[in-house]
Amino acid sequence: MPVMSEMSSAPRISAPLRLLILGGSADANRLVGALARDPRIDAVLSFAGRTENPIKPPIPCRIGGFGGVQGLIDYLRSERIDRVVDATHPFAAQMSAHAVEACAAAGVPLLALDRAPWQPQRGDHWIEVDTMEQAVAALGTAPRRVFLGIGRQQLELFAAAPQHSYLVRLVDAPRAPLPLPKVEIVVGRGPFTRANDGAMLRQFGAEMVVAKNAGGEATVAKIEAARDLGLPVVMVRRPVTPPRPTVTSVIEVLDWLDQAVAPMERGV
Ligand code: NAP
After folding, report:
1. I need a surface site. Which of 62, 119, 171, 235 has the fewest CB within 10 A?
2. 247 forms bridges with which residues in the sheet?
3. Count of C-beta atoms within a 10 Å radius of residue 240
4. Which atom of ligand 1 is nearest to the CA of 51?
5. Are 111 and 208 in contact (CB under 8 A)?
6. DSSP 8-state symbol, 55
7. From 44, 73, 88, mutation site for ligand 1 pocket: most ligand atoms within 8 A of C-beta
8. H or E, element range at 130
9. More confident residue, 13 or 176
């Protein structure tokens, strides 16, 4: 999937290179860790601000939306950003689309760091759907005990299926009651382990799991645990993002940045 050749015509930058990392994912955190002590890269990590207590990054960060495509264009120009890496979660489709449009308009090269989606394995019983509304419907009409490992944003959709009992895992404890009549909450931040997720599902008596096909290691434990327990998983497929240069590993991002910094500046 790497599309590095598209970048060869972009002029090289004298260090330090101003880099904007669109974050909110484990991949972004790994990239930040790899760049934190590189004097050639002057990076800023951007969070949407959804999590109340994000892990403090070892580089400068900014929090909050840019104000749409034009807001991001303005930011790229005013902050003199040389390169953008979109390391958002694969379901942050709007931010990714905005990045494609804004970077094109501002003439700033963009690279996406995007992990491969999970693939069903032997022993998995996935019901794949395209939207969370379809996931609600896929739970059926009979009351079930359902684990929702989908984050906070679309929970209210499950209010349309109040016959089920839900276990919801969230990064932050909710400040207001969730809009679900029969709900238990577990607060936790990945990475999770297969053994712990298995114990959690067994203790709750889960009969089904709902997940987004995020890919990667940090949240795969629930999928493995569901496999171990023979539970069906309603798996929401990824939203479509516009085509953009994409790599799947931090090392490929570092290579791309190496190509962007003028050779005489290396090792400064
Ligand atoms: P989204 O629908 O693609 O984005 C909605 C708006 O939030 C964007 O238009 C942008 O506002 C702002 N935004 C999103 N990511 C941003 C970032 N990294 N920095 C600054 N502004 C950002 O995204 P989402 O699904 O709400 O996710 C929000 C954040 O949570 C993302 O950063 C993502 O990496 C993280 N996350 C999402 C999920 C998920 O399942 N969706 C899971 C884990 C983590 P403006 O238009 O005002 O610029």
Report:
1. 119
2. 113
3. 10
4. 30
5. no
6. P
7. 88
8. none
9. 176
